[in-house]
C-alpha cells in the first residue's frame, strides 16, 4: 500500500481518474479523520483539479493536525495561483473587448481588485521573509515593492528607504520611492529621489528609461512642462516605442 500511495503521489491525474482518487482518499479520511497524510493528499488532488478553494481548505485542515510550516506556505501559494489565474482571464477579456461590452466595466473593476489582493498576498509573504531575515535588504526591497503595488505607500516608505543601502536593489528602491512619494502628492521629494537615481545610471537602459519617464510624470504634476517634456524627449531619443512617449513628444511639435 505504501508503494502504491507513493506512486499515486507522483502521478499527475486528470478527469475521471482524478475524481476517483479524490473519492478514495476522502473515504480513507472519513475512516481516519486525524490522519494528516489523507488531508494533505486531498489538498494536493484538489490542487491538481485546480479547485483552489478546496485545496486551501484541506491544506489548512492538515495544518491543524500537525506542526508543518510548509503547509502555511503552500496555502499562501495557492492563493497566489488562484489570483494569477483569475487575473490572466480578466486581462484577456479586457484586452479583447471594447469598453462598450456589457461586462467590461464590471470585469475591469474586478481586475483592479484581484491585482490589489495579489499584491496583498505577496506583501504578506514578503513580510514573513523579513521577519525571518530582518537584516536582508533584498527582502526589505521586495516587501516595500509589494506594499507599493498594494497601494500601501506610507508602509512601503521605510522598507524602500532601508533598501537603498543594498547595492543591487538601490536604483529600483529609489524608483519605487519616487512613485510612492508621487502617489502621496509629495512631488518635490519624488523629483529629488528620481533625479538622484537617474544621475547614477550612465546609459539609457531599461531601469533609467522607467526612472526618467516617472520623473517626467512628476514634473507634469508640478506644472513644470518644460522639464516634463525634456524627460520624455530623453526616453524618445533612446526608445521611440516606450509607453506613450512618442505621442507626448510629437504632440508638442504639433506632429500627428
Short account of what is shown:
The protein is an all-alpha fold. Helix content is 78%, strand content 0%.
Structure explained in plain terms:
- This protein is mostly helical and 256 residues long.
- The protein has helices spanning 2-10, 15-31, 36-48, 52-65, 69-96, 104-132, 137-149, 153-163, 170-183, 187-199, 206-221, 225-238, 245-252.
- 31% of the residues are buried.
Helix/strand-derived category reads mainly alpha
Morphology call: elongated
Would you tell me the overall average pLDDT? 88
Helix and strand sequence? HHHHHHHHHHHHH
Count of individual helical segments: 13
Spans of 5+ residues with little confidence (pLDDT < 50)?
Answer: none
Fraction of helical residues: over 70%
End-to-end separation in angstroms reads 73 Å
Radius of gyration: 24 Å
Main sheet, how many strands, which sense, barrel?
none
What percentage of amino acids are in beta strands? under 5%
Provide the fold topology.
Blueprint: H1 2-10, H2 15-31, H3 36-48, H4 52-65, H5 69-96, H6 104-132, H7 137-149, H8 153-163, H9 170-183, H10 187-199, H11 206-221, H12 225-238, H13 245-252
Helix pairs in contact: 2-3, 3-4, 4-5, 5-6, 6-7, 7-8, 7-9, 8-9, 9-10, 9-11, 10-11, 11-12, 12-13
Key descriptive features of the protein:
256 residues; mainly alpha
Amino acid at each position: 500500500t505504501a508503494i502504491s500511495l507513493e506512486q499515486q503521489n507522483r502521478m499527475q491525474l486528470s478527469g475521471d481518474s482524478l475524481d476517483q482518487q479524490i473519492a478514495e482518499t476522502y473515504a480513507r479520511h472519513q475512516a481516519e479523520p486525524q490522519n494528516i497524510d489523507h488531508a494533505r493528499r486531498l489538498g494536493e488532488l484538489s490542487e491538481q483539479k485546480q479547485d483552489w478553494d478546496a485545496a486551501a481548505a484541506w491544506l489548512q485542515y492538515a495544518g491543524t493536525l500537525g506542526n508543518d510550516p510548509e503547509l502555511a506556505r503552500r496555502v499562501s501559494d495557492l492563493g497566489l495561483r488562484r489570483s494569477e489565474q483569475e487575473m490572466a482571464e480578466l486581462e484577456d477579456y479586457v484586452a479583447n473587448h471594447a469598453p462598450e461590452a456589457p461586462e467590461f466595466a464590471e470585469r475591469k473593476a474586478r481586475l483592479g481588485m484581484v491585482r490589489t489582493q495579489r499584491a496583498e498576498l505577496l506583501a504578506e509573504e514578503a513580510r514573513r521573509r523579513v521577519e525571518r531575515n530582518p537584516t536582508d535588504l533584498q527582502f526589505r526591497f521586495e516587501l516595500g515593492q509589494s506594499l507599493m503595488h498594494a497601494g500601501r505607500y506610507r508602509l512601503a516608505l521605510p522598507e524602500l528607504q532601508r533598501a537603498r543601502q543594498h547595492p543591487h536593489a538601490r536604483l529600483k528602491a529609489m524608483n519605487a520611492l519616487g512613485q510612492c512619494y508621487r502617489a502621496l502628492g509629495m512631488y518635490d521629494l519624488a523629483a529629488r529621489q528620481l533625479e538622484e537615481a537617474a544621475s547614477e545610471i550612465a546609459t539609457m537602459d531599461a531601469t533609467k528609461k522607467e526612472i526618467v519617464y516617472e520623473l517626467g510624470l512628476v514634473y507634469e504634476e508640478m506644472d513644470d512642462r518644460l522639464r516634463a517634456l525634456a524627460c520624455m524627449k530623453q526616453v524618445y531619443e533612446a526608445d521611440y516605442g516606450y509607453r506613450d512617449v512618442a505621442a507626448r513628444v510629437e504632440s508638442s511639435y504639433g506632429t500627428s
